[in-house]
Specification:
The protein has a five-stranded mixed beta barrel. It folds into two domains: about 80 residues; about 120 residues, no CATH class. The protein is elongated and about 90 Å long. The chain is an alpha+beta fold. About 40% of the residues lie in helices and about 20% in strands. Its main location: membrane.
Amino acid sequence: MNVRGRSLVVLLAAVIAAGITARLGVWQLSRAAQKESLQASLDSRGAAPPLAADALARSTAEAANQHHRRITLEGRWVSGRTVYLDNRPMDGRAGFYVVTPLALPDGDAVLVQRGWVPRHAADRSRLPAVATPEGMVRIEGRIAPPPSRLFELGAEQQGLIRQNLDVDAFGRETGLRLRPLSVQQTDMPGAPADGLLRSWPAPAVDVHKHYGYAFQWFALASLITGLYVWFQLVRPRLRRRA
């Protein structure tokens, strides 16, 4: 291949590489715009008036549109079905999310993430006592997706301590008609203390990482362009003048 042919190949490679990296930067900016729109939607839901209890979603599609809405529910704790989700830190401390089904007046139930308790430093299986009132209770909270899933080796655990909790599987296990969502309980003025911490992380969609990725792709496109200009245009001219 002659010199002109090699120059054309290098030019084509530089144009393709710079074009691809610049396009990836644009795509990351579009993802950031989508995430900003989603964050605005979440903020709007959080600021909306509480959802009526009888409007609580019965399907997955309905539930997705209710996530992060405030709600007040009345029902009875199914205390015998309480589970402790392991490896759930809060405020930098290791511990469990306490999850108890709340039986609703219409016969359905909803998983309530009641709060967090610390894990015993020496004995992971030693669970703290959690006060669970009998009879009808009233709770406040925010509608949320089911508890997030963590990586788990082998089959899903059963028993008091679990790594994950699948709503459909737990419904079959317990015989409860569970709604396809959960509620993160919040502190309610005047409610008796139960020893649970409820510093739930605020819902966020992590927009800034997309701007970071976009900057990296645009920087790479600029670097490719700059290297081509230097080695293929500027440097040869400087050599010819020397």
